[in-house]
């Protein structure tokens, strides 16, 4: 390969320096690079504004010396990693059977109406996005949803609108 051809090869994306420094601190706690994959993805997601574009996936793969396909497979397996942009506040509505029987479809419709976007879309101001989710482990509060890390239970459309209206 000529020197010119070598220069034409695009560099692999890299983790932002702050994320790399955080990952280096974690390295001491994990036995292998592969074991670091989940925390590395969390760090990358944080630094890529809450989601993992292809650039982020390639950067994590390069950092850990793993095949990009393996990293991508993990991203698509876990619901807590996002392949598309998400809002600053992420809303998850449980639609498993107990919540479904107690009105989760009504909650989803209330969110779409209040936020003016459909499931998986981000509000124009970047404030919120919402998705349906598997059981969130609070079936006794059905129907329920999470806003970021906070559980809200025994919901109806009016309560959903009130909660969403209070999100900054
Ligand atoms: S079914 Fe909704 S939290 Fe379990």
Please provide a written account of the structure.
There is one protein chain. By secondary structure, the protein is α+β, with helices and mostly antiparallel strands. The chain has 2 domains: 11-77, Orthogonal Bundle (Arc Repressor Mutant, subunit A), CATH 1.10.10; 89-166, 3-Layer(aba) Sandwich (Glutaredoxin). It is built from 8 helices and 4 strands, in the order αααααβααβββα. The protein has a 4-stranded mixed beta sheet, covered by helices on one side. Bound molecules: FE2/S2 (inorganic) cluster (FES).
Q: List the bound ligands.
A: FE2/S2 (inorganic) cluster
Number of helices: 8
CATH class of the largest domain: Alpha Beta
CATH superfamily placement of the largest domain = Glutaredoxin
Terminal-residue CA separation: 55 Å
> How many beta-strand elements?
4
Note the beta-strand portion: 5-15%
* Radius of gyration computed on alpha carbons: 20 Å
Principal-axes shape call: elongated
Order of helical and strand elements: HHHHHEHHEEEH
CATH architecture grouping of the largest domain: 3-Layer(aba) Sandwich
pLDDT averaged over residues? 93
Q: Can you tag this structure with a few keywords?
A:
single chain; 168 residues; alpha+beta; Arc Repressor Mutant, subunit A; Glutaredoxin; 2 domains; four-stranded mixed β-sheet; 8 helices; 4 strands; 11% strand; binds FE2/S2 (inorganic) cluster
